[in-house]
Design a protein that fits this description.
About 35% of the residues lie in helices and about 25% in strands. By secondary structure, it is α/β, with parallel strands linked by helices. It binds fructose -6-phosphate.
Length: about 600
């Protein structure tokens, strides 16, 4: 959510800032801006709209000279998307320019203090307050002014700051929003995420909470809030650069859908050694596990949907009761949590504000915590007791696909692992489920082969206004994700219902031609689902079924079918999600939607 980039070195800053912002546009794309110090003053150019508007305005950066600058791509929180609300924000004297990701919670209070002191504001943003406060606190020592300002503000932030009096340095600082420092030769960078700087360097510092980096061309010094120097060890990023590129695909989402067999394989295979699941990062002992009375899963959006599948999976494998909650509800509902509760937090980015806050709340209440995270070194990964990384690689499309699939894979690994530790799974079942798990990448690849058929079906339905997804048990969990995928990128209204619940109200919305997508993958519930399909057909619905090859009787009722390969029932969601992702993608594509950057959304929601 909001992308920050900064450069200091020997080259012209503006083109480098634009190049970095292009890699971060998935984080927010309602406006963008850059500030470059030109030797005399800080020049700022900002534009409402996509980055291209800004880039055209400054001719790809050619119009701005200077070797130091900061840039920003915005997802609006305070103040509508507009030129004036876009970042960077500049203090009234023109001395400070600042880019910000996060929310300053006490900005109104700070703003009224500054107004009383005679400051004038031009934007509606919380960020401008910080620019003014920096200027107000500045008495010639930049670091002191930054620390004094940080002590006054409440909220979440990653800041990139430049000051006219110190034209050789950028200040980078973060709290609850990600920021990395890229270490080059004779040049250094800041960025919200690795893709922004990957073409320049693979050595990075990951800034921790309230660490303040002073970034100059020839070196970076990191301080704590007491102005003491912190020794940082660089991390080497070994991603293939193509991981952050489209590589010939029309959209990142299409590429990421097709990457799922590899992502799931990379997530599972290093953790199965000699036929046993080895989770080195899990330090929970058998005794500790036996003391767990409940598992609480907390997450947002699609990660929450993984949690809904996980409830069925954990209860089936471990016999431990499981509760699932969306993080934004969990954190304010006084949850009943103690040291006997295992809290499982799921987050692709590892930075989602509500999920992070929920994790902290769970820890405060004494729970043992495990996180499932895709971004190494992210806040959630750092703060949980144990972390299991998904090895999906960078996910750029706003709508998640491969991160979702790898999260599911980790759920299966963890559930089977816990069941074995607790002695509640037989050796034969243990071996069976491991081999089913190992078959997943190939079966996902086989499912992807149906893409032409999915496209043909999408062509029949892309003009629909409303769609309903129904399913029972884990198929209901899948319906939630299928429905979200469709609505978030195609803007078609869709709802997911537990199939047996539909007739308790919502069935009144079914009329002639309404599309109902019926997930009926599980054998033991197939007949029940057939009855539910008949119910909606009787009201005029057109039915698209999703099931396995062995349930071909579905064709008696469903006009269209997506078939998936057979696998044990708990792992069916990993296959059923594939045609649903492809369906959503194709519908959005046929409608001409901006698939990788759906309206109003952003990746990595670092504000509440
Ligand atoms: C939907 C989607 C979002 C995220 C949610 C949580 O396609 O991507 O619903 O799943 O914002 O994000 P993370 O997993 O980063 O915590």
């Amino acid at each position: 959510m909001c992308g920050i980039v900064g450069y200091v070195g020997q080259d012209q800053a503006a083109p480098i800032l634009l190049e970095g912002l292009a890699k971060l546009e998935y984080r927010g794309y309602d406006s963008a801006g850059v500030a470059v110090y030109d030797g005399t003053s800080i020049q700022v150019v900002k534009s409402k709209g996509r980055l291209k508007v800004l880039s055209d305005k400054i001719h790809g950066g050619a119009d701005m000279t200077g070797n130091i600058g900061i840039g920003h791509t915005r997802w609006a929180t305070h103040g509508k998307p507009s030129d004036v609300n876009a970042h960077p924000h500049v203090s009234e004297s023109g001395k400070f320019a600042i880019v910000h990701n996060g929310v300053i919670e006490n900005y109104l209070e700070l703003k009224s203090d500054l107004l009383e002191k005679g400051c004038h504001f031009v934007s509606e943003t919380d960020t401008e307050v910080v620019a003014q406060l920096l200027d107000y606190n500045y008495k010639g020592n930049l670091l002191e002014a930054v620390i004094k300002t940080l002590k006054k503000i409440r909220g979440s932030y990653a800041f990139g700051i430049i000051c006219k009096d110190w034209p050789d340095r950028i200040i980078g600082v973060r709290k609850e929003s990600p920021l990395i420092v890229g270490l080059g030769k004779g040049e250094n960078f800041i960025a919200s995420d690795i893709p922004a700087i990957l073409s320049h360097t693979r050595e990075i510092y990951r800034l921790q909470e309230n660490e303040i980096a002073v970034i100059q061309a020839d070196g970076v010094t990191v301080y704590n809030m007491d102005q003491e120097v912190i020794e940082k060890t660089p991390d080497h990023i070994n991603w293939d650069i193509s991981a952050a590129e489209k590589c010939g695909y029309e959209h990142f989402m299409a590429k990421e859908i097709m990457e799922q067999p590899k992502a799931v394989h990379d997530t599972i295979s290093p953790r199965i050694k000699n036929g046993r699941i080895v989770l080195d990062n899990i330090t929970l002992t058998k005794e500790q596990l036996e003391n767990i009375s409940r598992i609480m899963i907390v997450a947002c959006g699609s990660a929450y949907h993984v949690g809904v599948v996980a409830k069925y999976v954990f209860e089936r494998f471990t016999h431990i009761p499981v509760e699932v909650d969306v993080a934004s509800e969990f954190r304010y509902r006084d949850p009943i949590i103690d040291e006997h509760v295992l809290v499982l937090v799921i987050s692709q980015s590892g930075e989602t504000a509500d999920t992070l806050a929920a994790l902290r709340e769970a820890k405060r209440l004494g729970a043992r915590t495990i996180s499932i995270v895709n971004v190494v070194g992210s806040s959630i990964a750092n703060e949980s007791d144990d972390v299991l990384y998904t090895w999906a690689g960078p996910e750029i499309a706003v709508a998640t696909t491969k991160a979702y699939s790898t999260q599911l894979a980790v759920i299966y690994l963890l559930a089977i692992y816990i069941a074995e530790k607790m002695g509640v799974i037989s050796e034969a079942d243990y071996q069976y489920y491991i081999s089913e798990l190992q078959s997943l990448p190939d079966k996902i690849a086989e499912t992807l082969d149906s893409k032409a058929h999915v496209r043909a079906v999408a062509e029949q339905f892309y003009q629909k206004k409303d769609v309903f997804f129904i399913g029972r048990n884990i198929d209901y969990a899948m319906s939630l994700e299928g429905s979200l995928k469709l609505k978030e990128i195609s803007y078609i209204h869709s709802e997911a219902y537990a199939a047996g619940e539909l007739k308790h109200g919502t069935i009144s919305l079914i009329e002639n031609g309404t599309l109902v997508i019926a997930l009926a993958t599980q054998k033991r519930l197939f007949e029940k689902m057939m009855s539910n399909i008949k119910e909606v057909k009787a009201r005029g619905a057109t039915v698209l079924g999703v099931t396995t090859y062995s349930n071909q009787q579905i064709e008696k009722e469903a006009e269209y079918v997506f078939y998936i390969p057979e696998i044990c029932d708990m792992m069916l969601p990993s296959l059923a999600v594939i045609p649903l992702q492809m369906f959503a993608y194709n519908i959005a594509n046929l409608k001409g939607c901006d698939i990788d950057k759906p309206r109003n959304l952003a990746k990595s929601v670092t504000v509440e």
